[in-house]
Amino acid sequence: MKAEYRRDGVKHVYFIDVVVEHRCGHRKAYAVKDTAKAALEDDTAGKLRLICEQDTAGLADDYRLVTFAGLDPAAVENASLIARCGAEQDREAWEGDRAILPGLPGTVTAAGLGEASGYGVRGMRAAFALIPAGLLRNPPGERLHMHTPLTNGSSLLSANHAA
Fold this sequence. Notes:
Elements: E1 2-7, E2 10-15, E3 18-21, E4 27-33, H1 36-41, H2 44-54, E5 62-67, H3 73-87, H4 91-100, E6 107-108, H5 110-117, H6 120-129, E7 136-137, E8 150-152, H7 153-158
Parallel strand pairs: 4-5
Antiparallel strand pairs: 1-2, 3-4, 6-8, 7-8
């Protein structure tokens, strides 16, 4: 996302790396740098502060700086896949997957869910889109693919844990 700001009377342009819009409508804009040192060297925090102060268009509600240091590469790839699948807004496939999850075992795959729901690839992509809602959970540190074992959160919710 392109953001403009003024510093010392001079107009500048900065490209925000990631914008996340939450279901409630709150938008967060993230500048991503390799290291904290790189962020300091180009004064990324200062630029974001100016963009935030001068944002009259409402580009975002919150501006943040993050670095790749300490980020799990699999988590970054998974977040990208989940966001792409969620952006498709395939509500029919989402609801189809949601409807059958309670009757499935505690571990499922996206491919298996797509097949079981009858939505095929659409159901598989819907499975990835349902991860942020907690209906499915992916194993930490493992890249998502069609045969990744996913924990079926619906089966955990419906299980009787009484002793």
